[in-house]
Design a protein that fits this description.
Layout: H1 3-9, H2 19-24, H3 27-34, H4 36-54, H5 65-76, E1 83-89, E2 95-103, H6 113-122, E3 127-133, H7 143-159, E4 162-169, E5 174-176, H8 177-180
Parallel strand pairs: 3-4
Antiparallel strand pairs: 1-2, 1-3, 4-5
Length: 185
Amino acid sequence: MTNSELLSLLGVGPVAPTLFELSRLDSWRLAEQIGTEAANAVRAAIELGRRALRARDMRPRLKTAREAYLYLEPALAARRRERFHVLCLSSRRVLLADVLVAEGLEDGCLVDPREVFSPALAVRARGVVLAHNHPSGDPKPSEHDIILTERAVAAGQLLGISVVDHLVVGAGRYLSMAERGLCDF
């Protein structure tokens, strides 16, 4: 079925935006374009799709940056606001917890280091992967991203929790600071 045919099953007539653009619309703007009931159906379908992608393995082993990216992509892709996640890992890199620690605006997100390590301490994690999205679609880290990572690495060393990587997720791509050597991991 085409996207238009699938949307028609939800009671949505022809819409101009792509599915990606549709998923980024504010609820009120979507309701303005297609009606409240259809907007609720579309929002529910998009969220179910995200959850279906995440439900593959609730405790995956995340050995590489790419595996972490593929796990995080449903939660971070196509978001209008920056979101910051901490993946808490066992010594064998099995996911113990995935915690959204901050949500910001389109161009930034304030992250408190206590919020980064609090969930890791609670689950007795040996390592963490930091990850956030850039709603602009460009995964190039900002100077602020690099400084935050360096501070988190130093804090983690004091706590005995290694910062394994910091991923920046863009539109269909990502950047691993560990792979690029942008910080001293």
